[in-house]
């Protein structure tokens, strides 16, 4: 590895499994100081052991359940990051949850609100709390992970697909607000597409994923994006594969 991310402080949500875990390993391998967020402590500890065993910088672990976190929880996290690291170079919003495949009429309202909390409210509140930290770094970024679904295939994926569409709108607003002469924060959306992730396998049981790209296969794309010196255009969407 080339240590192209040395001295960069990068926060990854949903770090416990899938894309998040693969990303965390790839970023650590390039010298980044990773801050790993997940609701499951055992998964964070397993990831920590894997990173340290490969003699990379020990990541910081921060267990948090986005389904029930409030404004104060995000403010506390930002304060801890400021005290420990003094800045934040990048946030990767990767955490997402899918609760059920059902019609809007039959949907469970508890599942609806938890999905919105994790997939939409958490990225909003975390970004809001950490913008000041991102301003303290040069060429800082906020990266949102998209989940592309064809418009004629969204039936019974109500809360999930609505939250993901709203997330793109959030990214667009942030990009327009932060892409000014007075700030250096770039906002991008990465669309991994039809990859062999644990979530895709659960959501689409009728699709064969064994020949699709794995989370490990796409991690380098994120590394290259974060390492890029030049900022990309406003709200640039980076597609790594075809949508479902």
Topology:
Blueprint: E1 9-12, H1 18-29, E2 33-38, H2 41-53, E3 60-63, H3 71-85, E4 90-93, H4 109-135, E5 141-145, H5 158-178, E6 186-191, H6 198-203, H7 215-227, E7 236-239
Parallel strand pairs: 1-2, 1-4, 2-3, 4-5, 5-6, 6-7
Helix pairs in contact: 1-7, 3-4, 4-5
Explain this structure to me?
About 2% of the residues have low confidence. The chain contains 7 helices and 7 strands; from the N terminus they run βαβαβαβαβαβααβ. α1 packs across α7 and α4 runs parallel beside α5. With 244 residues, it is α/β, with parallel strands linked by helices. The protein has a 7-stranded parallel sheet, with helices on both faces. β5, α5 and β6 form a beta-alpha-beta unit. The protein is globular, with a radius of gyration of 17 Å. It has a single domain, classed as 3-Layer(aba) Sandwich (Rossmann fold).
A few lines on this structure:
The protein contains seven helices and seven strands, in the order βαβαβαβαβαβααβ. It has 244 residues and is an alpha/beta fold. The relative contact order is 0.15.
Biggest sheet strand line-up: 3-2-1-4-5-6-7
Chain-averaged pLDDT = 85
Q: Helix/strand-derived class?
A: alpha/beta
CATH superfamily: NAD(P)-binding Rossmann-like Domain
CATH class: Alpha Beta
- What is the count of DSSP helices, taking H or I runs of 4+ residues? 7
Counting structural domains, the number is 1
**Low-pLDDT sequence parts:** 230-235
